[in-house]
Design goal:
Length: 133
């Protein structure tokens, strides 16, 4: 999966690249509102999942793999992450923010979703990927 890099994420990425902002780990979150990600989105566009058992996942900077893909474009990927949920609810997609949840970088709605978690719970697996064009 590769989400959309939103405008404020692009600006923060440039700031980090030129050392105007300090790089920091990103946080992977699930969203529970029915929204189609757009470049103008911000963190407030998304309602973070609150299903029992849910916890956001910190993506440690040193664990990303950065390569040039087959199309000659830059790509960063992270190992598959698992969200274990223990109650029912609906999840529409994921988003990636800074730790304070004040800057949105990436958002993606599940192409085969939403995922309806049954009353006994379930898991959602995401392999975070960022592609440049």
């Amino acid at each position: 999966m590769a989400g959309i890099l939103v405008n404020e994420g692009e600006i923060e990425t440039l700031k980090r690249m030129v050392n105007k902002s300090t790089p920091a780990d990103l946080v992977l979150r699930l969203f529970s509102n029915n929204v189609t990600p757009a470049e103008t989105d911000t963190c407030t566009t998304y309602t973070e999942c609150n299903i029992t058992g849910y916890s956001a996942i910190t993506l440690t900077g040193s664990d990303w793999t950065v390569v040039t893909d087959a199309d000659g474009k830059g790509k960063a990927s992270y190992a598959e992450q698992t969200f274990s949920l223990s109650a029912s609810g609906t999840v529409y997609g994921y988003y990636i923010t800074n730790s304070d949840k004040t800057i949105l970088f990436i958002a993606e709605a599940f192409s085969d979703g939403p995922y309806n978690i049954p009353s006994g719970g379930g898991e959602i697996h995401i392999t975070p990927t960022i592609k440049l064009d």
